[in-house]
Specification:
Blueprint (H helix, E strand, L loop, with lengths): L2 E4 L4 E5 L5 E5 L3
Antiparallel strand pairs: 1-2, 2-3
């Protein structure tokens, strides 16, 4: 299962399993 959430700084985080997350910063 892939988990996705957005933090207060506007970064989208994708849970890639094993507790690892990769964030993409929104620049708009």
């Amino acid at each position: 299962m892939q988990s996705i959430y957005k933090d207060k700084a506007g970064t989208i985080w994708f849970g890639l399993g094993a507790g690892s997350f990769v964030g993409w910063k929104e620049n708009y």
